[in-house]
Amino acid sequence: MKKFVSINSKYYTSNKYKGLNVHNSRKKFNRNGNLLIHKNTVPEVQRQGKVFENVSKKFNDFNELLEKQKEIQYKKKSYHKKNSNTYYEQVLVLSEDMFLEEMKKGNKDLILKSIEDYMNLIKKEYGFEPLEFHLHLDEGHTNPETEEFHLNVHAHIGFINFDFDKEKTVLRGINKAGFSKMQDLAQKAFQDNGLDFVRGVSKDLSKKKHKDKEAFVRNKIDKVYKNLQFAESLLLKIDNLDKISLEQIQEKKVQYKDNKLIKRILDTFYKIKNKQIQEKDFSKDIERLEKTISKLSSEEKELLDSITVKTEKFRDLEKFEEWSENPDKFVEKIKAVELAKKNTELEKTIDELKKLVIDTTKSAERKIEEVENSKQQAVNEERWKWENRLKSEENKTNKLRRDVKNLVVQNNKHILVHSVWQQFADQLNVKEKFIAAEQKLMPQIDKRLEEVSINDYDPMSNKSILDKFKFDDLD
After folding, report:
1. What confidence score (pLDDT) does residue 94 get?
2. CA-closest candidate to residue 238, choices 228, 249, 247
3. In the prediction, which pLDDT does 206 show?
4. 212 in Cβ contact with 118 (< 8 Å)
5. Residues 255 and 195 occupy one common structural domain
6. What pTM was computed for the model?
7. Which among 213, 203, 216, 190 has a CA at the least distance from the CA of 99?
8. Is the dihedral of CA 290, 291, 293, 298 positive or negative?
9. Helices vs. strands in the chain: H and E counts, helices first
10. Which end of the chain is more exposed for a tag (fewer CB within 10 A), N or C?
11. What share of the chain is helix, strand, coil (3-state, %, to 5)?
12. How far is CA 78 from CA 69, 74, 423, in A?
């Protein structure tokens, strides 16, 4: 049983995020607001019971973190470049056998937790900020030979290419060994949760390269094309069955024993040749054969039609000698070939025009993005300019408040000093009046003292000697 877990890394500019998110989240709607079925989704009836729901989990918003990154870079005067790889995505692939085994045990939550733990390990080891993950369980393919459906278990894991603790981008600092270590971290995340997934063999050892979905499909189509090509050639030989020997059929059966479709055709030929079935049975086999071919996907049918056309052209070339005897027919054939060439050239021109339109559209989109970035940068600069001006005005206002407060304190001090001085002045005025009165009365006192004698004192009298001292002119 295969138990591998593997990681494939990709990175994109910020303007690619929206399209990627539509694919990953499976949230694409038509004009009426109805959810569309993604082109990679295999209908449930074709999955042979392997039906599971996709799972998505979001940790941070990409646009919010991107703005935060731009602000940090602007303050450090390291301006964000429009063509920089901002979105970092990993495709985490799990072996179908091990996944189905763990799902039977009821360990779906452990699988999800392992993916989240892996993202945290990546952040701790490298600094990438986790955004989200989308576990896709609706994709796969049917083996044309065994007719068995195989589930393509994978998760799209998203990060933003920025370390907010160190305030710098991450991708440029990771070498080949660093990317290889991610495979070890994936194994660790799953095994720490009790899931026995193991990392795949390193590319340095296996000498194999990752095949994306398009390459995988191309290989499958090429294989089907070859099978159909051979099947077509066998079908064409039905009319010449008497020229084919049993030994030739038997040799082909051994050669294509693992190919179910071709083996069925060869078995039919063998039975017919060996006269083991009657003519009516032969028609049933042909009917079964046609039903088998009808089960092929639309792509395979297109290939079959293409093979048929090429076979017909080959038949026409075999009749070259016959055409030479009829020049008019030969000329018509040449004209048809030339017309086909012109059609091919026209199709090539149309493809080039389509490519030109696509390139022009992309160029326009880039220019629009540049203008929008330029406008956004101008807005940010104006905003920061006014923020700095506002801070400067706030500082001036605070300084004025402190100055007013100091003036109030000084004014209160002046009022207090003035009050003290006023009281002192009042007291000083009373003292001056007392001195003036004293100076005025002293001559009279001295005169009266000269008139008073000891005999004037009578102890039995109620009169006091002070009665002598009466001053009528004293205020």
Report:
1. 94
2. 249
3. 47
4. no
5. no
6. 0.47
7. 190
8. positive
9. 13, 8
10. C
11. 65, 10, 25
12. 10, 6, 70
Indicate whether 282 belongs to any domain: yes
DSSP string across 386-414: HHHHHHHHHHHHHHHHHHHHHHHHHHHHH
Report the chain's mean pLDDT, rounded to a whole number.
76
- Select from 190, 208, 226 the last residue of a domain: 208
Q: Are 102 and 111 in contact (CB under 8 A)?
A: yes
pLDDT in tens, 258-291: 776 667 777 776 776 666 444 445 555 556 655 6
Confidence of residue 333 (pLDDT cuts 50, 70, 90): low
Residues in the chain: 475
Burial pattern 346-362, b for ≥16 Cβ within 10 A else e, equals eeeeeeeeeeeeeeeee
203 and 255 together in one domain: no
**What is the number of structural domains in the chain?**
2
In angstroms, rounded to a whole number, what is the distance separating the alpha carbons of residues 172 and 73? 16
Q: 244 pLDDT band (50/70/90 cuts)?
A: low
**CB 315, CB 240: distance < 8 Å:** no
- Mean pLDDT lowest for which of 160-164, 399-403, 412-416? 412-416
Instruction: Check whether residue 201 and residue 229 sit in a common domain.
Output: no
Between strands 154-160 and 85-94, the pairing is antiparallel
Containing 225, the helix (H) or strand (E) segment is: helix 213-236
Considering 208, 238, 257, which residue would you say is the last residue of a domain? 208
177 falls within a domain: yes
Residue 77 amino acid letter? K
